[in-house]
Amino acid sequence: MLFSVVPWVELRLAIPFGITKGLSPLVALLAAVLASWAMIVPMFLILDLFYHRFLSGLPLVRWGIEEVRNRGRAYVERWGVLGVGIYVSLPLPGPGIYSGTILAWLFGLPRRQAMLALALGTLVSAILVTVISTGVIALIRRFV
After folding, report:
1. pTM of the predicted protein model
2. Structurally, how many domains does the chain consist of?
3. Could you list the residue range(s) of the whole structural domain that residue 22 is in?
4. Residues 6 or more apart whose Cβ sits within 8 Å of residue 56
5. 38, 48, 53, 73: which has the fewest C-beta neighbours closer than 10 Å?
6. Cβ neighbours for 118, distance < 8 A, ≥ 6 positions apart
């Protein structure tokens, strides 16, 4: 669960780590998803309360926000709130719960709908990562 709340690591590492440490794939998936979901509301609050007052003055934070905007813009412009869920569901490094929340916040998407899209996108991503990880780990164990 701790890996799931680390930005840029999130469930893409947490699930395979949990499986290799002996957790069943379902338990690893559920733990990673629940920990990720727990970050949605705090991220919106942090962005609402602190971005314009404190965080926007930090060049690295501004750069990160712009990167998220540039990478996710096409998804939001094409599919709106659903685009945030699609963006988060990609089992690749980068698009995760943090960047998806930032994307929804940047584009001023309706909060409740955005939170639902983020939650569903995270679940889809977790399922994909679990299926891929289970297969890859089984293949590695077979040859090692």
Report:
1. 0.89
2. 1
3. 3-143
4. 62
5. 53
6. 40, 84, 85, 88, 97, 100, 101, 104
Residues 6+ apart with CB under 8 A from 127: 29
Contact 14, 28 (CB under 8 A): yes
Amino acid identity for residue 112 in this structure: R
- Give me the amino acid identity at 12: R
Handedness of CA 17, 89, 60, 110 (dihedral sign): negative
Length of the chain: 144
User: Residue by residue, what is the 3-state secondary structure of 60-129?
Assistant: HHHHHHHHHHHHHHHHHHHHCHHHHHHHHHCCCCCCCHHHHHHHHHHCCCCHHHHHHHHHHHHHHHHHHH
**Phi (first) and psi of residue 123, to 5 degrees:** -65, -45
Question: What is the CA 12 to chain-centroid distance, rounded?
Answer: 9
- As given in the structure block, the two tokens for residue 49 are 């309360």
Q: With H, G, I as helix, E, B as strand and everything else as coil, classify residue 130.
A: helix
The one-digit pLDDT tens for each residue of the chain (144 residues) are 788 888 878 899 999 999 999 999 999 999 999 999 999 999 999 999 998 888 888 899 899 999 999 999 999 999 999 999 999 999 877 788 999 999 999 999 999 999 999 999 999 999 999 999 998 888 888 887
